[in-house]
């Protein structure tokens, strides 16, 4: 029964009048956001324009195996709470922004000599 647009039920505990729809609405929003975030994470890595340009300039090609290895490395870093990770492998280094699932830059093995990596919080060796 609604009295002046306030939900009322005799069997509800004190303090819950009119709150059940708001609580379930918030739960639905949180569940929806969590699902969306998980789907985005499963969608795979994307490459920024800068990273794609660097890969082209440096002759780095990405095949299915490398992509799978990168995704696995990033997922491992995500589980440890990493935000910006350097994934180091035989093809080179891939700097990945973990929350956005985006490779932001890359360099080949030959370009790695005497290079300094800044603004990373983790490294994963492939």
Provide a descriptive summary of the structure in words.
Helix content is about 40%, strand content about 20%. It has about 130 residues and is an alpha/beta fold. The protein has 2 domains: about 1-40; about 45-125, no CATH class. The N and C termini lie far apart (about 60 Å). The model is unreliable at about 1-15 and about 15-20 (pLDDT under 50).
SSE layout:
Blueprint: E1 2-3, E2 6-7, H1 20-42, E3 46-47, H2 49-58, H3 64-79, E4 84-89, E5 92-97, E6 102-107, E7 122-125
Features:
39% helix
Question: What's the short version?
Answer:
This protein has 126 residues and is of the alpha/beta class.
Strand content: 15-25%
Q: Which residues form runs of ≥5 with pLDDT under 50?
A: 1-13, 15-21
Strand adjacency order, main sheet: 3-6-5-4-7
| Biggest sheet record | 5 strands, mixed
Number of domains: 2
Summed up, the helix count is 3
What is the succession of H and E elements? EEHEHHEEEE
First-residue to last-residue Cα separation: 62 Å
Average of per-residue pLDDT values = 79
Determine the structural class based on helices, strands and strand pairing: alpha/beta
Oligomer: single chain
- Shape, principal axes of CA atoms: elongated
Radius of gyration: 23 Å
């Amino acid at each position: 029964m609604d009295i002046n647009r306030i939900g009322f039920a005799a069997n509800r505990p004190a303090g819950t009048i009119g709150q059940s729809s708001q609580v379930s609405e918030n739960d639905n929003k949180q569940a929806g956001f969590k699902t969306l975030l998980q789907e985005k994470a499963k969608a795979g890595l994307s490459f920024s324009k800068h990273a794609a340009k660097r890969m082209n300039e440096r002759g780095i090609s990405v095949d299915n195996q490398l992509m799978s290895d990168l995704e696995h490395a990033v997922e491992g870093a995500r589980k440890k709470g990493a935000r910006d990770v350097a994934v180091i492998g035989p093809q080179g280094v891939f700097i990945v922004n973990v929350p956005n699932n985006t490779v932001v830059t890359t360099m080949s093995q030959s370009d790695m000599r005497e290079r300094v990596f800044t603004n990373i919080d983790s490294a994963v060796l492939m």
